[in-house]
Amino acid sequence: MGNADLIVCRDVALGYEGQEVLSHLNLRIGGGDYLCVVGDNGSGKSTLLRGLLGLLPPLAGEICRAPELESGAVGYLPQQTQAQRDFPATVEEVVLSGFLNRRGLRFFYTAAEKSQALMNLGKLGVLELRNQSYRRLSGGQQQRVLLARALCAASRLLILDEPVTGLDPAAAQDLYKTLNYLNRREGMAVVMVTHDLRPALRDAGTVLHIGRRGVFLGTPAEYLASPEGRRFREVAE
Ligand code: ADP
Hints:
By secondary structure, the protein is α/β, with parallel strands linked by helices. It is 41% helix and 26% strand. Helix 6 packs across helix 7. Adenosine-5'-diphosphate binds next to helix 1.
């Protein structure tokens, strides 16, 4: 594992109860990388994210993670469920809960955590919503709040599972722009599962396509020229 590597997968198999969903995966995620993960429903995209997050141990091979990731330098934006959309808390409380992992046995948030939470809300353009009830926000506003929350946890890597599901096209574009900004300007590494090929091809440095006959890994241009890319593009368009 090199100095700049955040996560390295070597010949990894992932799955459930001994059944492999993904196998022979070799993947290196470095600081500042932007990786888009695409593929059909049920192909194993969320499973891969669980493996990268350390929530699912590999059935074979190894997943090495940089030591700083173990101490909470990863922000995770899971797929939203209805229960999460109805979460009864203020925006500021939701964002502050991003620090829970780091808090250990403390019962309160520090002043530094509070100011960072507000800073992240400002960065995402939703500071003025801080005292509002989370459940009353629009889908796009909720995703921005959750991204601000993920930023409280993340200093190096953001992992996102279909972050624009349910958003209108304008809100989706806004979210992609924000991710691009965080990646380019702040050097935040991004790993995003998406059905939407446009951001994958425009912003990502690397595309990982998970298909029935194995995985394709390459630049967006290489992906477009590949059989997987051509077929998937026809379906997505
Ligand atoms: P994707 O995110 O690409 O839609 P998933 O990673 O969710 O795909 O699922 C990949 C495969 O793993 C599917 O066949 C799914 O049924 C199976 N799977 C997902 N989660 C579990 C689980 N917790 N237990 C058993 N099988 C699962």
